[in-house]
Amino acid sequence: MREQVEIGRGRSAQRSYVFDDLDIVPSRRTRSSSAVSTAWQLDAYRFELPLLTHPTDAVVSPATAARVGELGGLGVLNAEGLWARHAEAEKALAEVVARAAVDPAEAVAELQRLHAAPVRTSLLTEALERVRATGATVAARVSPQHARELTPTLLAAGVEVLVVQGTIISAEHVGGEEAVEGPLDLEDFIESLDIPVVAGGVGDYRTAMHLMRTGAAGVIVGYGQSTATSTDAVLGIGVPMATALVDAAAARRDHLDETGGRYVHVIADGAMSTSGDIAKAIACGADAVMLGEQLAAAEEAPGGGWYWTPAAAHPSLPRSGISRVPTVAPDLATVLTGPARSGAGTMNLFGALRRAMAKTGYSDLKEFQRVGLSVRR
User: Fold this and answer.
1) Which helix (H) or strand (E) holds 255?
2) Which Gene3D superfamilies match (predicted)?
3) Could you give the 3-state DSSP secondary structure of residue 282?
4) Entry pTM
5) What mean pLDDT is predicted for residues 340-350?
6) pLDDT tens, residue by residue, 42-66
7) What are the chain's domains?
8) Residues 6+ apart with CB under 8 A from 149
């Protein structure tokens, strides 16, 4: 049972931890980093890096999705983003970037305007086919509100992994008076598909367990917390990632027992600014990480050194701004697999994960989830 702290008369709260509160503890054994594997497998799809991209236009274009796949990760295209709405998506992005350089608030307003255009299935299909033509695994993100509407197009375009992602998600999305088809029941929705579905974000044991019971192949923990996100300021909602991941990992273990062996992957999304945070996320129980802001630091990122999440384009209540990300590397390869040119933990992210695993004596990701942890406070 997690520790309860009294915050006033008659009211208590659970004590939670973030990555900065924790340290990974070395063991008596070390091994060569060449003897360590960071490979990860989701359903039938194997990846050499435990990486999904956060589905934002600032990071993921058809070209960068393919490049991430070439490097060993999974690039996730936003099926409700600019590549699905505008024939000249690069030009639209350039306008957002130009406005951000003058006034980031104006850039958010421009994103809202651009996202007011309807999703065009022909453009979405074309963008996904560009990824598929490279041989990379094709993945796309939809919101719970538009999952039923867009999924037939995604399947026809060859999507192999579907990500149903919102800031906060539940096993049943309940629509308002404007909803035509009623609530999205994820269990029925996932059961109707022949491809793996990753769903989230969640922040606690109970919701993680509910999503696992829908048949999801993976559950996203967190909402992409970064320097750009403002969910805590706008909604008062926060996800203490270290505790949330440990709780989701506990749900995974209990679900494994409950189902007699069905394993659901836990994916950490947000609050990871350095390679050390990525290592801590895996140590807390994540099978893979979802990165966005870190990839925006590559010169080839579509956002041109600016970062935002899909929530920035919400028509009435954005939960993300647009923030400047210092460029640390010329390309995604340097950010992901090095070599690093500084000791700041912002390059060679997965080389650092491999080294952390080697320094603590673990040979693969599942073993590393058992590494010792200490609390600083």
Assistant:
1) helix 241-259
2) Aldolase class I
3) helix
4) 0.95
5) 96
6) 999 999 999 999 999 999 999 999 9
7) 17-375 (3.20.20.70)
8) none
